[in-house]
Amino acid sequence: MKIALAQINPTVGDVSGSTEKIGRCIVQAERDGAELVVFSELALTGYPPGDLLSESDLVAASVRAVEALADKSRKTAALVGFARPAADTPGAPLENAVALLEGGKVAAVHVKTSPATYDVFDERRYFRPGPPPETMLVAGKRIGVIICEDPPDASRPVTRLRDARAEIIVNVTASPFQLGKGATREELLRRQAISAGAPVVYVNQVGGNDELVFDGASVAISADGTLLGRCKGFDEDLLVVDTDGPPGRCEPTGGELEQLYRALVLGVGDYVRKCGFCSVVLGISGGIDSAVTAALASEALGPQNVLGLVLPSRYSCEGSLTDARELAEALGIKLIEVGIEQIHRAYEDALTGHFPKDAPGVTDENIQARIRGNIIMAFSNALGHLPLATGNKSELATGYCTLYGDMCGGLGVIGDVPKTLVYKLARFINEKTPQRIPESTITKPPSAELKPDQTDQEKLPPYELLDAILTRYVDEAKDFDQIVGEGLDAEQTREVIEMIQASEYKRRQAAPVLKVTSPPFGPARRAPIASRRKAGQ
């Protein structure tokens, strides 16, 4: 059977825009000889729609769009994801569904069996579970449909469809990007195809919606586990595969760093555009984090749409200013210099005599960071640029950042990227286009430059050790004893865990962060702010 994998980038809530995209894809699939064209989960509303689903007119528009699109299915059938009201019985008010459009009408509907409630998902808030999947007859073939259940969770539905003698299994999904997930996902799909004795067609959403980035990379796999086709990663695509024929176009997936780079570029670009902005502004310090953020933004939006601000203080070294200027020149972005010394002195004069003589020096450091944050926000207000925060995951984890200072912004681009990975990403960027990021930015010791001769390691363990603890505690959910049992230093492990716990109040007020690990800081992590839990107790 010739099936078109229609990988689209919807904007959440834009049902009319999605309807137009889906209609064009159905027409193109028909021209390409497809008998069936498959779209991703909730393709009409975009995923995840969240509390927009409480707006009845959005759901009604989704239902009307399905009915309108049915007319385009007279020659090529289509599977289209949408939301609809559930029956008037106790339970959640809606159903997450896929409509089979065939012969100019809605021929069948399948409702998602297991609404996802884990990590960033909270579908049972809106959707009630549907019945176990059954087969649909499409162009004489028994097609089994699964909605979004990622391969580890789809074994039971696949077994049921195998027992129902499904000739082809279609999994429509909206599965967010996560480092290392793509290869695992594809291998599990291959095993399921072999287990079911039927080809598996997996169609994923692509694009950025708020913190989530969807990588696409939709695939079709034959009954013997052969890869029949793979769509582009991180881009819209329409690919026709023949489940009975030889392998067709198989787009390369790229290595981990390339995937990370493309995910962040896509996430920045879609977040900015879908929020109604055209351009961004960010502080450029001459350090690694702001350099990588500027490079990603420049790639996503074009250098003409990125404004960099270099905001030197009395503690800024000439090397950092030189690195900032060289970066801006290499990227082709505009750079404006605004010194903060005069404003800093005004703060000192205004506050003299109000604090004890032994007041923590961090007070003065934070004042400088907040001055910079205010200037960035002033340019945002005056020129209409979206401000970007430049902090990394290691800093957000430990609270090595300033509320309303370097944390200010509309989006945290690398806030889910550990510091050690930021360095690798910088090297990757320079391999793509040599010397976009100055070598000295990569090699010099990281510093906030808020006091004389400052380095990050005055307050933090070496980043290699910090990130090793962070990965185990946050990403892998290991406790103090487990981490120390793996050979990491007990005192430093306790120190890092307690910094993570103490900084929850900062992360609650941080800009949205693009998700590239699991679980990231943000909606998926539900740690209390007020807690007396101590590491190792």
Features:
single chain, 537 residues, alpha/beta, Nitrilase/N-carbamoyl-D-aminoacid amidohydrolase, Rossmann fold, 2 domains, 6-stranded mixed β-sheet, 18% strand, elongated
Brief characterization of the structure:
By secondary structure, the chain is of the alpha/beta class.
The profile of the biggest β sheet is: 6 strands, mixed
- What is the helix fraction of residues, given as a range? 25-40%
Arithmetic mean pLDDT: 93
CATH top level of the largest domain? Alpha Beta
Number of separate strands:
19
* Total count of domains: 2
What is the oligomer described by this structure? single chain
CATH superfamily of the largest domain: Carbon-nitrogen hydrolase
Q: Which structural class matches the secondary elements?
A: alpha/beta
CATH architecture of the largest domain: 4-Layer Sandwich
Counting DSSP H or I runs of 4 or more residues, the number of helices is 16
CA gyration radius, whole angstroms? 25 Å
Shape descriptor: elongated
CATH topology description of the largest domain: Nitrilase/N-carbamoyl-D-aminoacid amidohydrolase
Percentage of residues in strands:
15-25%
- Terminal CA distance reads 60 Å
Strand order across the biggest sheet? 5-4-3-2-1-14
Low-confidence stretches: none
Description:
- There is one protein chain.
- Helix content is 37%, strand content 18%.
- It is of the alpha/beta class and 537 residues long.
- The longest helix has 22 residues, at 362-383.
- The protein has two domains: 2-253, 4-Layer Sandwich (Nitrilase/N-carbamoyl-D-aminoacid amidohydrolase), CATH 3.60.110.10; 260-456 and 503-508, 3-Layer(aba) Sandwich (Rossmann fold).
- It has helices at 15-31, 56-70, 155-163, 181-196, 256-274, 288-301, 318-331, 341-351, 362-383, 393-398, 419-432, 439-443, 463-475, 480-485, 490-502, 504-508; strands at 2-7, 36-38, 77-85, 94-102, 105-111, 135-138, 141-147, 168-173, 200-204, 206-209, 212-215, 219-221, 227-230, 237-242, 280-283, 306-310, 334-337, 386-389, 411-412.
